Amino acid sequence: MAEEVQAETVETEQAEVQGEQTEQAESQGKTFTQEQVNAMIKDRLARAEKQAEAEKAEAKKLAKMNADQKQQYELEKAQNEAKEAQAQLAKYEMQGQARKMFADSGIEPSDEDLALIVTAEAEGTQYNANQLLDLIARVREDERTKLLKGETPKANGKKLPAQVTQEDFNRMNMTEKVKLHAENPELFNKLTGGHE
Length: 196
What we know:
The chain is an all-alpha fold. The chain is 79% helix and 0% strand. The termini are far apart.
């Protein structure tokens, strides 16, 4: 009987997978090779068999128990599920608090960023958030310092020597002399003897 149900389940799963694949292929315009279809069916069957085995093991476990044990087991199972749900809720609430902390600092974190710092406990989440905010502040300050250390860029990107000598001036082409005149007229007049 169980083998017949499993065989029917396998055939149903195969039909569902092939139907899903046909719909996907038509809607996306994607075609699959027979090997790809077989691999997808094999994966789907493996998942269905694993789930069936888990359900079968659960049924065997329940069959061995008496009524009181079954009730106790179901109660423990429900309590564990409730604890997991509460932990998820607490984590979700902590995620909201962490997002607010970052928003107050002018930072818009992604869900992946929040996943790195959020814990079920408020203290742990706050500590992680503060550490990340401190890191961001240090990086910003380092970058600001690096930018301020740089030299003021020139309009055309070329830097003139700090001091142009008469010899340097004599080797300049006309464009460079015009540039020198525009950027430093006093030096230009000194080098030309006041003749423009």
